[in-house]
Amino acid sequence: MSKRFLQIALVCILSVTMLGAGKPNASFDKIGHKLMCQCSCGQILLECNHVGCPVSGPMIDELHAQIATGLPEAGVLNWFIGKYGPIVLAEPIRGGFDDVAWIVPCVIFVLATLGVVLLIRMWHRRHAQLQPAIPASMPNTTTDTMRDRIRHDTDFDS
């Protein structure tokens, strides 16, 4: 019984220690997905799938080196911005002038929607003003004789 208990304990200890064995550094993964590969492929740095990409390997090595220095995430991102420019970021950093990149598309969408609504209202009002008002007491122009004539003209003689 004690031998079986030791085997179970050993398996549990090994499985717990192996849970994080294949998982990369969390900060490396997080920062690497915020950077773009600079080989003009338009892909995230850690997801660049070009065979023999001359840029992604050195950039990943630089990322490892910057994380190893102990810089916080913002410091590593600023280092990459300093070296490659702001185009290295997969999305703009929140804050400062970069907020414009987040706010302007939403504002333009809302303004365009309001503009379309106002334009439709204006067209509707203009159309209503151009049509003459139909009086409620307009006499009926279709008489019984007219109906009889129409029936006679459209009746098919068999």
UniProtKB/TrEMBL annotation:
Residues 145-158 have a biased composition (Basic and acidic residues). It comes from the Bacteria. Gene3D superfamilies: Cytochrome C biogenesis protein. Residues 1-21 form the signal peptide. Keywords: Heme, Iron, Membrane, Metal-binding, Signal, Transmembrane, Transmembrane helix. One of its GO terms (molecular function) is metal ion binding. InterPro entries: CcmH/CycL/Ccl2/NrfF_N, CcmH/CycL/NrfF/Ccl2_sf. Residues 24-130 form the CcmH/CycL/Ccl2/NrfF N-terminal domain. Residues 135-158 are annotated as: Disordered. Pfam families: CcmH. The chain crosses the membrane at residues 100-120. Possible subunit of a heme lyase. Belongs to the CcmH/CycL/Ccl2/NrfF family. This is Cytochrome c-type biogenesis protein.
